[in-house]
Fold this sequence. Notes:
Layout: E1 4-8, E2 11-16, E3 19-24, E4 27-31, H1 33-42, H2 73-86, H3 94-101, H4 109-124, E5 128-133, E6 140-147, E7 158-165, E8 168-176, H5 184-208, E9 217-221, H6 224-231, H7 248-254, E10 258-262, H8 279-288, E11 291-293, H9 294-306
Parallel strand pairs: 6-9, 9-10
Antiparallel strand pairs: 1-2, 2-3, 3-4, 4-5, 5-11, 6-7, 7-8
Helix pairs in contact: 2-3, 2-4, 5-6
Amino acid sequence: MAQEFEMSDMGLMSYYLGIEVKQMEDGIFISQEAYTRELLKKLNMLDCNPTNTPMECGVKLSKEEEGVRKVDQTLFRSLVGSLRYLTCTRPDILFSVGLVSRYMENPTETHMKAAKRILRYLRGTLEYGMFYSTSDEFKLMGYCDSDYAGDIDDRKSTTGFVFFLGNNAISWCSKKQPIITLSTCEAEYVAVTACACHAIWLKILLKELHFEQAESTKIMMDNKSASALAKNPVFHDRSKHIETKYHFIRQCIENMYVEVEYVKSLDQVVDIFTKLLKYDAFQKLRIIIGVRKLSSLRDDVKNKLNS
C-alpha cells in the first residue's frame, strides 16, 4: 500500500491509511486531519457551523420514535463507519460514535442529526489529535467506570475504561454491556471485570515488547461498593445473582494481576467514555487523555526553542 512522506516545520510527517504522524522533539503527534476533511467534503459539511462538544449534554436517543422520518440506511451506516475509524486518533468522540452506532438498523432523522453534530464538532477541531510525550515512565494504570442503565431502549449500562502507560493513554473502550444490571454496584462490577481482562492482555503484549509489568496493575474506580465486592472472596446475597464469569475479577486480585483502588468521582477520567458531558468537564478530560490541538503544540515547541 502506498505511503507518502513530506517534510514540515515540525519534522517528518507520514500518511498511512489516513493516519498522519508528526515526530517532534518532545513526542509524537498522530491525527487524521486529511481523512476528516475528506469526510466533511463528501457530506458537504466543510463550511458547517462548528460545535464545542460532539453531542449535546442531556440528549436521549431512542429506537422507537413516532412521526420521525426514516433516512437512507446505507448513507447512515457509511457515515457511522467512517466516524468509527476516526476513533483511532480521536477518543474524544468514542462515546458519541458508539451511541449513534446503536441505531444503524433503522436510522431516523434524529439519529442522522446526532451523527452530523459529531461532524460539526470535528469541523471545529480539525487540527486535534493524540499527543504522546516522551517519557521514562512505563507504568501501566487503568481507569474504569459505567453509566448505569443509560440506554433507554433496553436499559443496559455502558462500560468505559482507559489505560495509561506513564502519562500517555494507550488503549480505551466505550461499549454497551451485554446484560441488564440491577444496580450501579453491579454495573461497575461488570465494568471492572472487563477492564481487568484487558489489563491482563496489555501486560502480555507489553512483555512481548520488553516492557514487562511485574507488579499488579492498578485499576481506579469511583464506586466503593463495587470495589469492596471485587475484593471480597465470599459470595453472599448481594452478588449471587451476578453471572459467574464476572467474578473473574476476584481471581485477578487474588493472583495480584490487578489491584482495585478508589478514586473520587471528580477525578474519574473515564466519564468522557460513558456519558455526555458539558463543555468544561469535556474539555478537561479531553486534555487528560491526550487529545490536543496541533497549533498549540507548535507554540510549545517555539517557546522552548526561544527560551
